[in-house]
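pinned: reference chain
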Amino acid sequence: MTQATPGSTGGPVGPPRRADILLGVTPNLETLARRTTVVLTAMGTVLAVAGPASAEVPEGWSNPEPVSPLQAVLVLVGIPLLLMVVISLLVYLPALVRGERVAPGGTRENQWFGGPRKGTSELAAPDTEESKAGGASGRW
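pinned: its structure tokens
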């Protein structure tokens, strides 16, 4: 990518100057330098943080028995799954007790939370031209 900078002697048709040639290279070098810095910083952080994980158990501490894979799966998968089932039951059970349909894709009428219970028929209509009831009071 060669571009002529304003004020160069060659003009847009003439040969590009040395600085003109570097216009396309410099952003690529900056991007490479940024990426290299990020990767090296991430690797250094991982290595620095992982060091204490390989330490031996201190002498005064007890050395617990290893955990079986079945127990690890039960704790790491079973408990979150049980929590998900309990939360789902707490959400859907009241609707099921009332006899409502909870299947996805069911048609629902529009709801206005905190609004009138019987629809818009309960809303006050504007009485006069200056009344602010019944609309957003938009002016054109």
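why pinned: The longest helix spans residues 69-98. The chain is about 45% helix and 0% strand.
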